[in-house]
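[Meeting: bench + compute handoff]

Bench side (C.D.) handed over the final construct sequence. Compute side (W.E.) agreed to return the predicted structure before the next meeting so the bench team could plan truncations. Sequence as handed over:
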Amino acid sequence: MAVVSATSKNAAAPIAPTAVALATSGDTLNYIADQGQELWLYNTSGSDVVVTIDGSLGTTVPVPGGAGLTASVAAGLAVTVVAGNFAVVMLDKAKAYLQGSVSITAATGAVVKATMVTLY
């Protein structure tokens, strides 16, 4: 079980964030709300891979302007990372999915590398 930890990009020198090879289960993400955290995902394979980010307490959230409607976030946020490319997730924009302990899994283990940076 690996933990994707944040590296501050508020530095005078270049930063060297640590990348974690995601597994199909057991990896976690240390999300702290409103800290400008970005999750960088890199797919090292030749096929598209879906990464799921899921908080243990995420159930439903109100839909803005939806007159009492709610949307389920229980299944987590699915992010498709195109073969040989990066995907960047601005975590504060997805915080409804990140309530409680946050797990991060790749549909195919060890072909997606994850790292997280923060503004602070």
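W.E. noted at the follow-up: Residues 16 and 50 are 25 Å apart (CA to CA). C.D. will use this when planning the next construct.
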